[in-house]
Amino acid sequence: MKSIKPSRTNIIWHRRLGLSVFLVLIFLAISGIALNHSPALKLSKTNLSNNWLLSWYGLEKPAINGFKLQDKWLYQNGNNQLFLDGQSVAPCSAPLRSGVGNAQSIFALCANALVMLTENGALLETFSQLDGLPANVQAVAAVEDSLYLLTDSAVLGFDPDSLAVTATAKTPAALSESLTVMAAVPESLTEQLDETGPSISLETVILDLHSGRFFGQFGVLFVDIIGLLVCILSITGLWAWLSRLRQINQ
Amino acid sequence: MFNSAYNRIFFVGLLATTLLASPLLSAKGVFQSGPDFFAEVFAPHKPQSKVLWMTADIRQQAEKILDRPVVGLRVRYHQLDGKTAWILEEIGKEMPITIGVVINQHKIAKVKILAYRESRGGEVRYPAYMAQYEGAVLTDQRKLDKSIDGITGATLSVWAVNKVAALALYYHGLVNPVESTNGQSK
Fold first, then answer.
1. B87-98 burial, b if ≥16 CB within 10 A, otherwise e?
2. Angle B177-B37-B49 (CA atoms, 0-180°, nearest 5)?
3. Do A172 and A151 contact (CB within 8 A), yes or no?
4. Using N-to-C axis directions, what is the helix angle for B155-175 and B56-66, rounded to 10°?
5. Number of domains making up chain B
6. Which residue of B has its CA nearest to A131?
7. How many CB pairs under 8 A join A and B?
8. Is the CB of B87 less than 8 angstroms away from the CB of A130?
């Protein structure tokens, strides 16, 4: 029987292939193990909102809108929290519909409650629908020392001390100029809201890196080539091992 | 199991009853608004709406009773003579439970769940259970003097109601100081 020696060329290429893919293989192995244990590692619950990463995925943080009350901005983050000039002041269910301030207090109309703050942002009290806030209030307005709640068709007087809501003869149109208009909050304030806006889960990022999709079509092609190289590596390795085995047997 | 027509009818009837009754037994919901609660407990009179301002000492005691930070500079309550009514919130397991508490002469006159938002443990709102709180007073350790029975599966909700009941008694004592024997309030 003709002896089969492992080809020198075969071994050289096996070595070269192994050296060229081993780093990628180690990464694929670790990322694969991580994805297999994603629930335990809470990868899907770990959100990343890094600006570079968001822009890589084609996502942009939306502009944060709020209300400028004299020299302070009243706005909300994406986590149902009310902010006054960078200071977290109270819970506020989205959306923040309206904001207004008078000499002593600041009022924020959230989805289901009117949040009352001192001029410095300390929470005084929350007046919710369960406490008697009408369900269809769309805005809050201050005219001199009086406070009004505006619905689609009526204007209600509101006493912040007794929380009494009373009917008035005013119309919403008459008070429209007294409303504080919503405007974009300066970036210097919104940059502090790291939990606002879109985010990407760590699981998605690892999965995309594992499959190569993170780098687009070329990334997928690269991982495909790595897969083919691993197949070739297996074949050249098996060939070398079989050749050596036969040589020993002879 | 279905060896007779009687068994089949019984099983189908039981299944239908369970399906029809399940929405009625749902624990979650808003059961009464604040204004309706005050109107009910003070009927036929109209109570006065007042606020208790939270000083550093009051906040510290309230936080000790609730075992968590207390936010807000003032607490709203309604009063008529020596009777006060409070609507307070406390987290059961994950969601806040809105609880109405009526105090009369420093004793709990009524406790009522106004809104329950947890998916389980809503048995705590049954009137028969709430009746346990009636007559309870606050001890020097700021606890209820009565032992309140627990409910399997609603332990956290029961603890939340206990804390709120004790807090309402504490707040009531602040706005209606107990007159000592020598005529001074304490």
1. bbbbbbbeeebb
2. 45
3. yes
4. 160
5. 1
6. B34
7. 37
8. yes
As a whole number of angstroms, the distance between CA B78 and CA B176 comes to 12
> Hey, what CATH class is A65-190 in?
mainly beta
The runs of H, that is alpha helices, within chain A are: 8-36, 38-41, 51-56, 172-175, 187-190, 202-211, 216-249
Segments making up each domain of chain A, as ranges: 8-50+199-249, 65-190
Asked whether residue B10 is assigned to any structural domain, the reply reads: no
> What is the DSSP secondary structure assignment for residue A164, as one 8-state letter?
E
Give the whole-angstrom CA distance, residue B45 versus residue A64: 47
- Coil, strand, or helix at residue B97? strand
SS3 B92: coil
* Residue B45 covered by a domain: yes
Can you tell me the distance from the alpha carbon of B170 to that of B66, in angstroms, rounded to the nearest whole number? Answer: 11
Candidates B38, B46, B71, B87, partner chain A, best to mutate (most A CBs within 10 A): B71
Q: Which of B74, B98, B115 comes nearest A124 by C-beta? A: B74
In this structure, what are the phi and psi dihedrals at residue B141, rounded to the nearest 5 degrees?
Answer: -85, 10
Q: Which among B49, B73, B74 has the least Cβ separation from residue A162?
A: B49
Tell me whether residues B30 and A126 touch, CB distance under 8 A: no
Three-class secondary structure of residue B91 per DSSP: strand
Query: Would residue B57 count as lying in a domain?
Result: yes
Angle at B175 between CA A121 and CA B128, to 5 degrees: 100
Residues 6+ apart with CB under 8 A from A45: A201
Q: Look at A126 and B72 and tell me if their CB atoms are within 8 Å.
A: yes
Contact assessment for residue A156 and residue A134, using Cβ atoms and an 8 Å cutoff: yes
Does residue B186 form part of some domain? no
Each residue's pLDDT, cut to its tens digit, for chain A (250 residues) gives 444 455 778 888 888 889 988 899 999 999 999 999 988 888 888 888 787 888 888 877 667 889 998 888 999 887 788 999 888 899 998 889 999 988 789 999 998 899 999 988 999 999 998 888 988 899 999 888 889 999 888 899 999 888 889 999 888 888 878 788 888 888 888 777 755 566 788 999 999 999 999 999 999 999 999 999 999 989 988 988 888 888 888 7
Residue B51: list chain A partners with CB under 8 A: 125, 161
d(CA A64, CA A236): 59
The one-letter amino acid at A181: V
Domain that holds residue B62: 27-175
What ipTM was assigned to the predicted interfaces of this complex? 0.76
Task: Output the pTM of the full model.
Answer: 0.67
